[in-house]
């Protein structure tokens, strides 16, 4: 639903952006609980959908930003130390997919500079 809403033209033009932001935040909250337990391939799953469109790519980058903020900055007093360490380790382990997504974005911006907002 998050990725579908990100690609919707009406979302970009109306107040749907607020809803998308709330959904992204909710998704990150779910991921923090399920990622290391039952959704080990979250990063690769979400990164693989990013190259489908610019809107999806932007939203995936927003989700990854929210997740990294939660794991590295804001979660210091909100989640247990062991869980935070597991999330940091998982993010580090899957960083290759994030790096490849960043390379994709850079390559696209070089090939078509007008496509970047």
SSE blueprint and pairings:
Elements lengths: L1 H6 L1 H5 L2 H19 L7 H9 L3 H19 L8 H13 L1 H17 L6
Q: Which residues form runs of ≥5 with pLDDT under 50?
A: none
Structural class: mainly alpha
Our Rg estimate from Cα atoms comes to 15 Å
Number of helices in the DSSP assignment: 7
**Can you count the beta strands?**
0
Mean pLDDT: 84
Main beta sheet strand tally, sense and closure: none
Number of separate structural domains: 1
Assign a percent range to the helix content. Answer: over 70%
**Termini separation:** 23 Å
Can you describe this structure?
This protein is mainly alpha-helical. The chain has helices at residues 2-7, 9-13, 16-34, 42-50, 54-72, 81-93, 95-111. Helix 3 (16-34) packs across helix 5 (54-72) and helix 4 (42-50) packs parallel to helix 7 (95-111). 17% of the residues are buried.
Describe the structure using short key phrases:
mainly alpha, 0% strand, globular
Give the gist of this structure:
The protein is mostly helical.
